[in-house]
């Protein structure tokens, strides 16, 4: 059984898609008593849903959610920061509480300017967390204890893999693994569409495409081989795969990937107000 979190109370501000995925992981792995997980979920029906589904304490009042908490997960949208994280809510946060942000494009400097004197850990998870296959990068700010970082690793480690990084790399991480599931779903959908064009039933085409992505990712992770080596193993000289790869290269699939990552980096700067 997973080691319990060394927290008396864990609070969330925001219980949307990502907040829920993390809550599902924590409660599923029994990392702490669900009743000691408090979620400020903004809307009563959402608070009730989270309580009924996971046993957590769902609230509309963020101040009540954070009171006496040892760690506070910021899981609202970046655009909500200035309107939500202020006034009475900031005052209700206990002096020693660790702030754990999953928000894209919101810097540790910005968060530290709101929650003055608090240790801040910035992270970038991704949606496959919801099925225990997430990838979360963890960037601790200055003065964060090793114990707090380990707690963050436990929280995200119960629903996927974790990687410690420096904050300077987090926008690149966002562009690769944070947004990456979006790119992969587009590619699965496209491959499935192409399968339908070739005569396969839709459901079969989606299963074939999705399992191919999942299995190929697993091969990279488990063999430790460079993706190009694994690609060569599928590609017989003069065979069928190389004909397909040539068509993909003609479609500039690699260039599209560079462009996608650059577009996310640009958008992150815009959201940070730097452009
Ligand atoms: N969706 C993704 O793939 C990823 C998202 N993130 C980050 O996670 C954060 C949350 O994203 P999602 O969960 O996808 O968004 P979401 O829209 O599903 O969740 C945001 C939640 O905040 C709630 N909310 C609105 N006003 C509030 C208030 N005053 N107090 C408390 N809660 C309030 C909304 O009702 C909603 O449930 C964002 O900052 C995003 O950048 C990070 C990694 C991946
Ligand atoms: O699209 C977004 O803003 C978030 C950040 C990483 C993935 N989704």
* Count of beta strands: 8
Please report the distance between the alpha carbons of the first and last residues. Answer: 47 Å
- CATH hierarchy class name of the largest domain: Alpha Beta
* Overall average pLDDT: 96
The global form is elongated
Number of domains: 2
What ligands are attached or bound here?
Answer: 1,4-dihydronicotinamide adenine dinucleotide, (2S)-3,4-dihydro-2H-pyrrole-2-carboxylic acid
Instruction: Give the biggest beta sheet.
Output: 8 strands, mixed
CATH superfamily of the largest domain: NAD(P)-binding Rossmann-like Domain
CATH architecture of the largest domain: 3-Layer(aba) Sandwich
Low-confidence stretches: none
Count of DSSP H/I helices? 13
Question: Which structural class should the secondary elements be placed in?
Answer: alpha/beta
Strands in their spatial order, largest beta sheet: 3-2-1-4-5-6-7-8
Instruction: Estimate what percentage of residues fall within beta strands.
Output: 5-15%
Structural features, described:
This protein is of the alpha/beta class. It has 2 domains: 160 residues, NAD(P)-binding Rossmann-like Domain (Rossmann fold, 3-Layer(aba) Sandwich), CATH 3.40.50; 94 residues, ProC C-terminal domain-like fold. The protein is 52% helix and 13% strand. It is built from 13 helices and 8 strands. The protein has an 8-stranded mixed sheet, sandwiched between helices. Helix 8 crosses helix 13 and helix 9 crosses helix 10. The mean pLDDT is 96. It binds 1,4-dihydronicotinamide adenine dinucleotide (NAI) and (2S)-3,4-dihydro-2H-pyrrole-2-carboxylic acid (A1CAB). (2S)-3,4-dihydro-2H-pyrrole-2-carboxylic acid (A1CAB) binds next to helix 8.
């Amino acid at each position: 059984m997973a080691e319990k979190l060394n927290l008396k109370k864990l609070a969330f501000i925001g219980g949307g898609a990502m907040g829920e995925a993390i809550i599902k992981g924590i409660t599923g792995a029994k990392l702490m008593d669900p009743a000691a997980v408090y979620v400020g979920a903004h809307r009563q029906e959402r608070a009730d849903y989270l309580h009924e589904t996971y046993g957590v304490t769902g609230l509309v009042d963020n101040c009540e959610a954070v009171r006496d908490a040892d760690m506070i997960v910021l899981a609202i949208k970046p655009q909500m920061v200035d309107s939500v994280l202020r006034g009475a809510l900031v005052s209700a946060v206990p002096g020693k509480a660790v702030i754990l942000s999953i928000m894209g494009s919101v810097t540790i400097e910005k968060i530290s300017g709101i929650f003055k004197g608090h240790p801040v850990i910035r992270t970038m998870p991704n949606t496959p967390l919801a099925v225990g296959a997430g990838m979360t990068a963890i960037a601790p700010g200055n003065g964060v204890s090793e114990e707090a970082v380990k707690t963050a690793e436990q929280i995200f480690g119960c629903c996927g893999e974790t990687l410690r990084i420096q904050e300077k790399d987090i926008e690149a991480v966002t562009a690769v693994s944070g947004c990456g599931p979006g790119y992969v779903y587009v590619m699965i959908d496209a491959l499935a569409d192409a399968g339908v064009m070739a005569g396969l039933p839709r459901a079969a085409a989606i299963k074939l495409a999705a399992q191919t992505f999942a299995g190929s990712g697993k091969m990279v992770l488990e063999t430790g081989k460079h993706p190009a080596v694994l690609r060569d193993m599928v590609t017989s000289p003069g065979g069928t795969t190389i004909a397909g790869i040539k068509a993909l290269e003609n479609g500039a699939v690699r260039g599209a990937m560079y462009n996608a990552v650059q577009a996310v980096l640009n958008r992150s700067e815009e959201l940070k107000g730097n452009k």
